[in-house]
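During the no-cost extension, the postdoctoral fellow (Dr. R.K.) reprocessed legacy sequence entries with the updated structure-token encoder. One reprocessed record is reproduced below for audit purposes.
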Amino acid sequence: MMSASKMARLFISQDRLDSWSSEDRVRVEGDLMTLSGDGRSFKLKPAVRFIKVSDDSPDPHGLIGKVRTIEVLVKSGGEHYMDSVIFQETAYDVQQGFLGEPTRREPLSARTEG
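Re-encoded structure tokens follow.
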């Protein structure tokens, strides 16, 4: 099994998380998402994935396809609202979601109920 330090971070869109949750594929408690199948857990941070420059012009900042947490985005001067981000006077269309960071939490099958 891969250790938490070797597992990749992943972007999960809000729609995907809602779908997985309704299908009982994941359980979300606070900022922790646990996969039902194998018990792996990810700490979730609000994030966006940059889809395109809103006016279809070239991307002057190389952000298309990148994922940024809201915290990092705000610290770097970006403004986020719904499905849009303004970064250094460039408007982007973004996909809202979460960046999942693997945790070292033991799988559900290894825990005992107390």
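The beta strands are 10-13, 26-29, 32-35, 41-53, 67-69, 79-81, 84-87, 90-102. DSSP finds two helices and eight strands in the chain. The remaining legacy entries will be reprocessed before the final report is submitted.
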